[in-house]
């Protein structure tokens, strides 16, 4: 009985905190207290959090090194932009179509490639991400290399925040479900998992498709915030940027991925006043963090209300 | 165990907080060392890292030189110009974020970014805040004109000619000066820059009575061009047009000459880089021509003066991007003088009405689509040196 009560209390407090964050930012935006610069960086943060959390499902929890995340983001961005900008459909349809298309792309690409392991998989996904980009470059309907320009700015704060919450809730619950246990067992030891009767290919493809789906969501939000999308935006360097967030946060930690995504976005923004040495400083900070925290900021631990309570309350 | 966790958590939080604090500094209204009260702030949103870093840094050098000269001569409207330089990493969303940060610094105008895609990223912020953007080298037509509605973007200007013009120029040069009767186009298919130039070259060249024997394509990051070049060699054309960027063009020309292709090869301003000579070599580059915005060998006294000043300051030859960066600042100063006060909206009106402005890259007037009407030059590589061949006025 007590347990059930605690669960409800936890759920209620989580909802309250989320609502508070949402209303606070919404108020700051509508009251004009948050200038445009902060709004743009906030949008980048939200999009990067979605990307990092979704990639962390593939790389962190399933243990499949994927380097093609920007490709799925591109699929989402283009599908959403075509829906709203060229076919004049509502934004929500664009987002749904983006998620579906990216998820489908993840599924189609996942089935053959996830039979590969380690380095081979990394190379295959890297190549597939590039194939998506080069394909887009050669489709005249989406203006080839010039990309789609003049996309309406529909990714408002409610959409961005909703996207982040949806991604985190779905992925955290997935990881904590029986599916999630199966997914983690694949990471820990694929052979042992197979011996225990787990259909490893099925779970790998499932994680891959869901990760790709949320990358599609991030792409849709990106396209409708930054006015222009072109294939070059989604090159493999973008995939590496997302991978850096996941590794820096800690493989197998959702909160780690969130913290890293937020920190890295803020860091790039904070270094803007030093244009000449910006990338050097950025690299240097990453190297220092990796030397002192090789397992990433969070390792495979999660930061939750319970952690704060335990550390400061002295209970254990 | 618990201690370790505490420390880890503390490190994480310190990291986040320090960044948040730094972020506040970046977006704030004023900054240490950059006075804003009695100076006119000008934003330089250029590519200093990423794919086209060399364009951005050269344009910055040119712009800074112009600003220093103006400040030394007493500034404009009795005020000094204060440049605020930012790196947009050759990414469109970064360009947008930086524009917003620069507008927080109360800039009167933004110079840059260099490429059309990055300018597009910056465009909505400039339009929303009614601050003019002067693009030194964004050549795509839809940078200044919305291609959906056909309306000119009020706050976006450029000082370079647009892509189609370069294709037209080279076609005219090929048929008039080189007497080419037929040509092969081998263009960069991965950029609309290459495709657009190829299209207009073909149009003008066929109008002048020439024939296009074949059109081949390469994509960004290609390194081996021998298959297509062997085919081109078999066609034995009078002229080969290679619109693309220097990363691919330099090895392409080297391989073409190695295969024994002796026909003249023509290109565009994407060729303008010291890497052309270091990669392709002096001999391979003989009989190659490209269109550009300006030549540092131009004997025009204004150009000579600019080239000397640039060499004295940076100890290197100014390329077209440096000259365009310089002109971007100069045309902005002309606009400020015409407007009579440092107000972004008044400056925009003045810029739209600029006539016969004498820049380093030629005399220009801004037309109603915010494009300059100006001359272009044909440059030739002679033993590894860029030599001015001729100037063509539209």
Could you describe the 3D structure shown?
- Chain A is mainly α and 316 residues long.
- Chain A has a two-stranded antiparallel sheet.
- Chain A has a domain of 200 residues.
- Helices cover 73% and strands 1% of the residues of chain A.
- By secondary structure, chain B is of the alpha/beta class.
- In chain B, the strands form three sheets. Chain B has a seven-stranded mixed beta sheet with strand order 7-6-8-9-10-14-15, sandwiched between helices.
- Helix content of chain B is 44%, strand content 19%.
- Chain B starts with a helix and ends with a strand.
- In chain B, strand 8, helix 8 and strand 9 form a beta-alpha-beta unit.
- Chains A and B meet through helix 2, helix 11 and helix 12 of A and helix 1, strand 2, helix 3, helix 4 and helix 6 of B.
Brief digest:
The complex is a heterodimer of chains A (316) and B (394). By secondary structure, chain A is an all-alpha fold.
Index terms:
heterodimer; A: 316 residues; 73% helix; globular; B: alpha/beta; Rossmann fold; seven-stranded mixed β-sheet; 12 helices; 44% helix
Under CATH at level 1, the class of the largest domain in chain B stands as Alpha Beta
Number of strands of chain B: 15
Class by alpha and beta content of chain B: alpha/beta
> Could you estimate the helical fraction of the residues of chain A in percent?
over 70%
Whole-angstrom Rg of chain B: 23 Å
Biggest sheet features of chain B: 7 strands, mixed
Instruction: Based on Cα principal axes, name the global outline of chain A.
Output: globular
Average of per-residue pLDDT values of chain A:
90
What is the CATH homologous superfamily assignment of the largest domain in chain B? Response regulator
Largest interface: A-B, 53 and 56 residues
User: Order of strands side by side in the largest beta sheet of chain B?
Assistant: 7-6-8-9-10-14-15
Global Rg of chain A: 20 Å
How many runs of DSSP E, i.e. beta strands of chain A? Answer: 2
* Beta-strand share of residues of chain A: under 5%
Given as residue ranges, the uncertain stretches of chain A (5+ residues, pLDDT < 50) are none
Question: How much of the residues of chain B is beta strand, in percent?
Answer: 15-25%
For the largest sheet of chain A, list the strands in their spatial order: 1-2
Largest sheet of chain A: 2 strands, antiparallel
- Poorly predicted regions of chain B are 20-36
Oligomer: heterodimer
Q: What is the H/E string of chain B? A: HEHEHEHEEHEHEHEHEHEHHHEEEEE
């Amino acid at each position: 009985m007590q347990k059930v009560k605690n669960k409800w209390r936890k759920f209620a407090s989580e909802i309250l905190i989320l609502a508070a964050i949402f209303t606070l930012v919404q108020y700051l935006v509508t009251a004009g207290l948050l200038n445009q610069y902060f709004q743009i960086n906030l949008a980048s943060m939200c999009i990067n959090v979605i990307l990092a959390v979704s990639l962390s499902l593939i790389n962190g929890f399933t243990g499949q090194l994927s380097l093609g995340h920007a490709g799925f983001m591109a699929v989402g961005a283009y599908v959403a932009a075509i829906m709203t900008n060229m076919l004049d459909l509502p934004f929500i349809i664009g987002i749904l179509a983006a998620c579906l298309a990216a998820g489908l792309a993840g599924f189609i690409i996942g089935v053959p490639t996830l039979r590969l392991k380690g380095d081979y998989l990394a190379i295959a996904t890297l190549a597939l991400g590039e194939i998506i980009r080069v394909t887009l470059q050669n489709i005249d309907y989406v203006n080839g290399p010039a990309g789609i320009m003049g996309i309406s700015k529909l990714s408002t704060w409610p959409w961005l925040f909703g996207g982040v919450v949806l991604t985190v809730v779905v992925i955290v619950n997935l990881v904590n479900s029986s599916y999630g246990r199966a997914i983690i067992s694949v990471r820990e030891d694929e052979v042992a998992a197979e011996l225990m009767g787990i259909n490893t290919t099925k779970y790998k493809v499932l994680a891959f498709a869901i990760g790709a789906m949320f990358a599609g969501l991030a792409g849709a939000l990106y396209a409708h915030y930054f006015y222009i999308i072109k294939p070059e935006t989604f090159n493999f360097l973008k995939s590496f940027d997302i991978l850096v967030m996941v590794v820096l946060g800690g493989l197998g930690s959702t909160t780690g991925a969130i913290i890293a995504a937020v920190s890295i976005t803020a860091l790039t923004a904070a270094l803007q006043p030093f244009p000449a040495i910006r990338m050097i400083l950025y690299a240097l900070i990453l190297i220092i963090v990796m030397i002192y925290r090789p397992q990433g900021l969070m390792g495979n631990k999660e930061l939750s209300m319970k952690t704060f309570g335990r550390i400061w309350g002295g209970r254990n | 165990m618990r201690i370790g966790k505490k420390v880890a958590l503390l490190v994480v939080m310190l990291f986040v907080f320090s960044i948040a604090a730094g972020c506040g500094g970046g977006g704030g209204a004023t900054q240490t060392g950059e006075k804003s009260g009695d100076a006119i702030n000008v934003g330089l949103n250029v590519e200093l890292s990423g794919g086209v870093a060399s364009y951005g840094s050269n344009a910055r050098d040119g712009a800074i030189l112009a600003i220093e000269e103006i400040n030394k001569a007493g500034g404009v409207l009795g005020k000094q110009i204060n440049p605020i330089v930012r790196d947009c990493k050759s990414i469109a969303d970064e360009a947008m974020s930086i524009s917003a940060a620069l507008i927080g610094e109360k800039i009167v105008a933004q110079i840059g970014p260099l490429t059309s895609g990055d300018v597009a990223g910056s465009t909505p912020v400039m339009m929303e805040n009614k601050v003019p953007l002067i693009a030194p080298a964004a050549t795509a037509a839809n940078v200044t004109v919305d291609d959906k509605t056909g309306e000119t973007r009020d706050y976006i200007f450029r000082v370079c000619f647009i892509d189609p013009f370069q294709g037209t120029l080279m076609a005219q040069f090929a048929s008039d000066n080189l007497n080419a009767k037929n040509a092969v186009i081998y263009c960069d298919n991965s950029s609309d820059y290459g495709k657009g130039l190829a299209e207009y070259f073909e149009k003008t060249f066929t109008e002048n009575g020439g024939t296009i024997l074949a059109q081949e394509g390469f994509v960004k990051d290609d390194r081996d061009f021998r298959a297509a070049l062997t085919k081109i060699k078999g066609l034995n054309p009078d002229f080969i047009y290679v619109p693309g960027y220097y990363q691919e063009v330099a090895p392409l020309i080297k391989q073409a000459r190695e295969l024994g292709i002796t026909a003249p090869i023509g290109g565009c301003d994407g060729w303008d880089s010291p890497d052309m000579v270091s990669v392709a070599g002096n001999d391979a580059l003989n009989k190659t021509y490209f269109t550009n915005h300006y030549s540092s060998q131009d004997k025009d006294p204004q150009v000579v003066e600019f080239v000397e000043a640039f060499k004295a300051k940076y100890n290197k030859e100014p390329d077209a991007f440096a000259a365009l960066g310089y002109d971007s600042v100069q045309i902005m100063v002309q606009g400020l003088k015409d407007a009579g006060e440092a107000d972004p909206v008044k400056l925009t009106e003045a810029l739209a009405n600029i006539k016969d402005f004498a820049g380093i890259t030629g005399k220009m007037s801004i037309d109603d689509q915010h494009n300059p009407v100006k001359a272009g030059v044909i440059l030739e590589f002679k033993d590894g040196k860029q030599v001015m061949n001729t100037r063509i006025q539209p």
